[in-house]
Amino acid sequence: MTTRAWSSPTAPCRRELLGFATVGLLAYAVDLALFTYLRGPAGLGPLTAKALSFVAACSVAYAGNALGTYRATRARGLRPYAAFFLVNLAGAAVQLLCLAVSHYGLGLTSQRADTVSGAVIGMALATILRFWGTRTWVFRAEGRVGSWTG
User: Fold this and answer.
1) Can you state the angle between helices 11-39 and 122-133, rounded to 10 degrees?
2) 0.85 exceeded by pTM
3) What are phi and psi of 110, to 5 degrees?
4) What's the pLDDT tens digit per position in 14-44?
5) DSSP code of 139?
6) Rounded to a whole number, what is the distance in angstroms from the first to the last CA of the chain?
7) CA-CA distance, 121 to 25, in Å (whole number)?
8) Residue 3 per-residue DSSP state
9) CA-CA distance, 150 to 144, in Å (whole number)?
10) How far apart are CA 73 and CA 135, in angstroms?
11) Residue of 36, 31, 38 whose CA lies nearest to 126
C-alpha cells in the first residue's frame, strides 16, 4: 500500500468560499467608497448614488469571480454577467425584505433593529443566496451539481 496525501473533499469548496468572500469584500468596499463619493462631493441624490455604486460593485465582483474564484469555468459573453447581476439584485431584494419585515411587519423601528435586520441578517441571507446563485447559474463547473452540499 502506498502512502499518499489525502486531500479533503471540502478543500475546493473552502477555496471557493474564501475566494468568493474576498471578492465580495472588495466589491463591498467599492460600493461603500463610490456611494460615499457620489453622495458627498459629487452631490448626487441617494438613490442615484446607490444605483451607480451597486452597478460598479457588481461589475467588480463579477470580474473578481470570473478572473479569480471561478476562472476555470470559462464563462464568456453577456449571459453570465446578466445572470450575475440578477443574482445580485435578488440578494439586494432579500436584504430589503428582511429590513421591511422587521421594521414594518414586526414594528422593530430603532436604528439598531434596522441595522441588525438589514445589514446583519439580511446580508447573511443575501450572501448565501449570492454564493449559491453565482455557482449554480453563473459559473457552472463540469461535473459539479449546483448545490455546494452535494
Assistant:
1) 120
2) no
3) -75, 160
4) 899 999 999 999 999 999 999 999 999 999 9
5) S
6) 30
7) 17
8) -
9) 8
10) 10
11) 31
Element (H, E) at 129: helix 122-133
Angle CA(117)–CA(123)–CA(128) in degrees, nearest 5? Answer: 130
Distances, alpha carbon 93 to alpha carbons 41, 42, 86, 96, 101, in Å: 28, 27, 10, 5, 12
b/e burial code for range 64-75 (CB count within 10 A of at least 16 → b): bbbeebbeebeb
* pLDDT tens string 64-107: 999 999 998 877 889 999 999 999 999 999 999 999 999 999 99
Phi then psi for 6, rounded to 5 degrees?
Answer: -85, 130
What are the distances in angstroms from CA 136 to CA 9, 57, 84, 113, 144? 19, 20, 10, 32, 9
> Which amino acid makes up residue 78?
L
